Amino acid sequence: MPALVLLGAQWGDEGKGKATDLLGGSVDYVVRYQGGNNAGHTVVVGDQKYALHLLPSGILSPGCTPVIGNGVVVDPSVLLSELSGLNERGVDTSKLLLSGNAHIITPYNVTVDKVTERFLGKRKIGTTGRGIGPTYADKINRVGIRVQDLYDESILTQKVEAALDVKNQILTKLYNRRAMAVDQAVEELLGYADKLAPYVADTVLVINQALEENKVVLFEGGQGTLLDIDHGTYPFVTSSNPTAGGACTGAGVGPTKISRVIGILKAYTTRVGAGPFPTELFDEDGEALRRIGGERGVTTGRDRRCGWFDAVIARYATRVNGLTDFFLTKLDVLTGWEQIPVCVAYEIDGKRVEELPYSQTDFHHAKPVYEMLPGWSEDISKAKSFADLPKNAQNYVKALEEMSGAPISAIGVGPGRDETIEINSFL
Ligand code: IMP
C-alpha cells in the first residue's frame, strides 16, 4: 500500500515536477488533490520541456494513470487545451481520470477573481487571476458547479442561476460591471460535457482499490505549505490545502493509508505574489538567484521574489505535514557563492524566536538571523552520488537537514531528469 504525498515545503515552485517525474516510472497513479491551473510544473524529458498547469505530471509517464481528484478546481478550457497540446506532441493522455466531484472554474469566477483583485488595490493578494479563490468560495458557500453537473442540464441551469443571483448583484452594484447571463454560462459549460466525458470517473473508488491492490499511488500537491489556507501566511495564501491533510480530503483516502510524506525544498527560497517573506533579498544576490535559478513563474510569467534558505519555515513544514523526507532542489543554483547565509531563527521585536510565530503581526516583523555556511565553486551538475559533491556542498546539505528536522533523501543538481542524486529511495 505505498501511498506517497509529495508537496511543496515553502511557498510553491520548489521543483515538484522534477520530483514527481523522477518517481513517475515506478508510480502507478499520480493524483492531484487541490489547487487548479494556478500551479505550474516544468518537466524536462530529454530535450523536450513541458509546462503543465492543471494536469498531474504523471501524464508524461506511459505506465502511469494521472488522476484529477475531487479537491481540485478545474477550468475545462484549460484542461482541454493542455490535453490537445500534449496530444500534438505525441503524448497519450487517454488514461486521465477526472473526479465527477471536482469543482469547475466557471467563466464568471475568472472574472470575479480579476475584478476583486483590482478592487482591493494596494491590499491585493497577487492571485494568479485564474478564478481559484472564487471557485473555492462557491464550493464552501454550496453554490459551486461540479463536473458531474455538466451531465444534467436542468440541475446545471438551477445551480448557475443560484450562483449568478448573488454574483450579478456584486458585479453590477459594487464593481460597476455588466451582469453575466445564465444561459450563456450554461451553454459554454454544456459545450465541455462530451469532450470531458471519457475522463470522468469515481476517482475515490479507483484510488482506494488501487491501494488495496498494492499499487503505488503518488499524491501531488500544488503550491506549497506556506500558501495553505489554514497553515500558510493568511491572507496571502491560496484557497486550498496543499499540506498533507489536503491529500486525504482532496482525494478521498484515509490518513492511515498514507505511508510517506515528502517535502520539496528549494536550496534557497522564492515566493510569488504579496505577503511576508523574511529572507527576501533586494540586492544583487537576489537578482543572481532569480537569474541563475530561472525564477520566473511558469503560470503567470511573473518574476519570483528570491531570498536565502529559511530553516524556520522548513521546520514548520516538517511539523504541519508530518514530513518523512525532503527532496532538496536546485542546489546547483548556489554554486559560486563564497559564503551562503542560512536563516536559522528570527528576531522579532528584539527577541530571538526559533519557530514560526502563529501571529501574523509577529511574522510581518520577523527579521532573519543568519548563520554563514562556506560555499563551493565546482560544477555539481554531474554529481551522481552524495560523495561526488564538494565537501562544502555536502556540509550545506547536512546543515539544512539538521535544521529542518527530516532526512534529505534526494538532491536536485540540475533541471534535467537525470540530474538528481538519490540518497534514500522513496519506494
Ligand atoms: P491564487 O492561488 O491564484 O488564488 O493566488 C493566491 C496566492 O498564491 C498568490 O500569492 C499566488 O501568487 C500564489 N500561488 C498560487 N499558485 C502558486 C504556485 O503554483 N506557485 C507559487 N505561488 C502560487
Question: How does the major sheet shape up?
Answer: 10 strands, mixed
Q: How many helix segments?
A: 12
Please list the strands of the largest sheet in the order they lie side by side.
Answer: 9-7-5-2-10-1-11-15-19-20
Helix content: 25-40%
Uncertain segments of ≥5 residues (pLDDT<50)?
A: none
> What is the arithmetic mean of pLDDT?
94
Radius of gyration: 22 Å
According to DSSP, the number of beta strands is 20
Under the CATH scheme, which architecture of the largest domain would be assigned? Alpha-Beta Complex
CATH superfamily of the largest domain: Adenylosuccinate Synthetase, subunit A, domain 3
In percent, how much strand structure appears in the residues?
Answer: 15-25%
Describe the structure.
With 427 residues, the chain is of the alpha/beta class. The chain folds into two domains: 3-93 and 202-422, Adenylosuccinate Synthetase, subunit A, domain 3 (Adenylosuccinate Synthetase, Chain A, domain 3, Alpha-Beta Complex); 103-196, Adenylosuccinate Synthetase, subunit A, domain 2 (Orthogonal Bundle). Helix 3 (107-120) packs across helix 4 (132-141) and helix 5 packs across helix 6 (182-196). The protein has twelve helices and 20 strands. The mean pLDDT is 94. It is globular and about 65 Å long. A ten-stranded mixed beta sheet has the order 9-7-5-2-10-1-11-15-19-20, sandwiched between helices. Strands 14, 16, 17 and 18 form a four-stranded mixed beta sheet that branches. The protein has a two-stranded antiparallel sheet with strand order 3-4. It has helices at 16-24, 76-88, 107-120, 132-141, 153-174, 182-196, 203-212, 244-251, 284-293, 311-321, 360-365, 391-404; strands at 3-8, 29-32, 41-45, 48-52, 65-68, 73-74, 97-99, 103-104, 200-201, 217-220, 260-266, 269-271, 305-307, 309-310, 325-329, 339-348, 351-353, 367-374, 408-412, 420-422. It is 33% helix and 20% strand. Inosinic acid (IMP) binds next to helix 4.
